[in-house]
Structure formats: C-alpha cells, structure tokens
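ligand=DAU
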Amino acid sequence: MRTLLITGGAGFIGSNFVRLILERHPDYHVIVYDKLTYAGNLDNLKDVASRFGDRYVFIQGDICDAEKVGQSLQIHNVDTIVNFAAETHVDRSILDPDAFIQTDVYGTYVLLEAAREMGMERYHQISTDEVYGHVPTGTSKESDPIAPRSPYAASKASADLMVLAYHITYGLPVTITRGANNVGPYQYPEKVVPLFVTNAIDDLPLPLYGDGLQVRDYHYVLDHCDAIDLVLHQGEIGEAYNVGSGSEMKNLDMTRLILGLLSKPESLIQPVKDRPGHDRRYALDISKLRALGWAPAHTCEESITSTVRWYVENEWWWRPIKNGEHYQAYYRAQYAGREAARELAR
Ligand code: NAD
Ligand code: DAU
C-alpha cells in the first residue's frame, strides 16, 4: 500500500491526477497538500471528497513551509511525494518572477530535504518541456541540454537540476516527467485554450500573440496523468521522461479549431503584441516513455475538441473564476494596452 502526498493537487493537472490515482489504486491513500493560490480550487476536487472520503485528506499548506511539510509526511505516514505544486503561467512569470523562485525553486528544495530526512520510497517531480527552450526543428530528448528562456522555465529547470542532484548526491529515489502543454477539464482560464474557449463563448476577442505561428503540443491531461502513474510504478530511478502527444499544432490553427467547434466567426481573433522571449516551438521525443509501453490516446485536435466540450458543459466551474476580482485584475494587467502597443509597433 502506498500513501502519496500530492502537492498542488488542487490545481489543474494535480486534481486530474488525484482522481486517476484513487480510481485506479483502491488500496492507495492520497494526501493533497496545496496552498490554494489563485490557481488552486477545491471545486476541482469536489467529487473526490465524497467519492473517496476514507482514502483522501486535504491539507492547506505551502511547500516552502518546512515544518508543515515535515508534520504532514509524518502524521500520515507518507511514502511517496508527487510534486505538482508550482507557479505555472509564463506571462505571470514575466510580470513578476518572485513567486516562481519561491515556490518552484525553494519549495522544491524544501520537499527534497523532507524526502531525504524521512526516507521517502519515491520523490516524483512534475516538470515541463519548457526546460529545453525553443526547439526550431526536430524534437527534444531527455538527454538534451536544458536551455530555459522565461523566468517560469528557468525556475522549473532549476528544480529539475536540484532533483537530479539529490539523487546523485544522497541517493534519493527520484523520477521526473517533462510534460507538453496540457489541456482538459479544470484548467484555469489564463492558459490559452481555456481562455480562448471561454472568451469565444462570450463573443469576446481572442488575443493571439504575434503572428500566431508558434507551435505547441496540446496534450490531453488524462494522457499525461496516465503517463505519470506509469513512471511512478515502472520508471527507472534517477531518470526523466518526456510526456506529450507526439503531434503539434500552430496557435492560429488551434484558435480556428476552437472557433469552428463553437460556430463563432474568425473576426473574434485579435492579434496583439507578442510575449517577450516567446518560445516559437516545443516538440518532444517521447520514445523513452513509449519503450515503457505507454502511448498517447489523443492527438492535439482530439484533445482540444474534448476540452471545448467540457468548458461548454461546465460554466458552473469557470464563470465564477472569470467574474472574480483576481482574474479581472490580472486580465487588465496582462491585456489592457496590448492591442494599442501593437498598433504603435507598426
Ligand atoms: P496550476 O497552476 O493549475 O496549479 C498549481 C497548483 O499548485 C495550485 O493548486 C496551487 O494552489 C498550488 N501551489 C502553488 N504554489 C504552491 C505552494 N507554494 N505550496 C503549495 N501549493 C502551491 O498548475 P498545473 O497547470 O496543474 O501544473 C501542475 C504542474 O505541472 C506544475 O509543476 C507545472 O509546472 C507542470 N506542468 C504544467 C503543464 C501545463 O500545461 N499546465 C505542462 C507541463 C508541466
Ligand atoms: O509546455 C508546457 C507548458 O505549457 C507548461 O509548463 C506551462 O505551465 C503552461 O502554462 C504552458 O505554457 P505556454 O506558455 O506554452 O502556455 P500558454 O497557454 O500560456 O500559451 C500557449 C501558446 O499560446 C503560447 O505560444 C502563447 C500563446 N498565447 C497565450 C496566451 C495566454 C496567445 O497567443 N495568447 C494568449 O493570450
């Protein structure tokens, strides 16, 4: 039997993972440890408490709080840490990197120290394809040098290096997964797909950065969670594994797909000033994970299609977020003046 501390389990990917683990492993216990920042939301776990109450505990806490982390591990007899907790939005890291350094770098160090001290059976780090930086051609292999280019990507890359250092130096049994752009249920509507879907539903403009020809692998969140479960059980200690769909899509095509699915006009597309240092393309080589017997179940197009359906059917979840003061303030800071700036740059 395993007891997992899932940090960041009230966020987008973490909450999908909590559900998958509890459904798949009837003898596992899950402790969600989450600070509940703007991105953490107990609505993401609403059904979990009622369905799995006897095997599920929620603790509100910061991964930077060493004392609370240590107590939580001890009280619940945790043997495995899966760390999803992070500041995750690239645009926010450009506006204000501070929280990224705190949580993504220092917070990871706190968890690693606790894992070492308490002798965890496994420490698993959720990482990102962004650590490889912009990939103009071909695909990134796990053995490629990391070359992050945004404050977010640099904070995640720092964490990866620290995780690997704890394995090499102290023998901590670690694994890492580096995921592509996830889409699916419960993604905070600041990320491009839920932002564009919910704006389109309301006939609001879709702010497309630059020329819209940037390339991403829009990967279905449950495929990602399935891969993490596999790596937890069959991955080699000390190794990193790329996780993606192996397909890719230009942002402009993703935008047109969303508008088409919602029967909305392309005139909603509003080209705006580009993101500074915008990585034009990420693309992962997923052969190492395939060799463990894993295969993605959705292409980018299928993932986006099913995500659009979920947002159409679940306004109860996203509308209160978008109407909230925090979201509105962020939206103004990020987008007000972007269109004007584009006009000036012409
Ligand atoms: P999210 O922003 O939806 O959720 C992050 C969660 O972490 C929230 O519940 C938040 O409350 C919690 N959190 C933040 N700071 C914390 C702290 N100091 N202590 C405890 N909890 C804290 O993020 P997500 O998109 O679900 O991403 C989860 C993980 O996956 C992150 O590590 C991210 O870097 C990684 N990742 C994300 C993607 C993606 O496309 N979203 C792709 C690859 C990897
Ligand atoms: O690749 C994995 C990463 O994917 C994760 O590690 C990050 O946590 C996650 O936020 C995501 O990063 P991106 O920067 O790729 O995702 P985002 O949804 O912010 O943007 C996707 C693409 O869409 C990117 O090329 C920028 C563009 N974009 C984004 C926003 C928010 C727009 O054109 N307009 C927008 O308003």
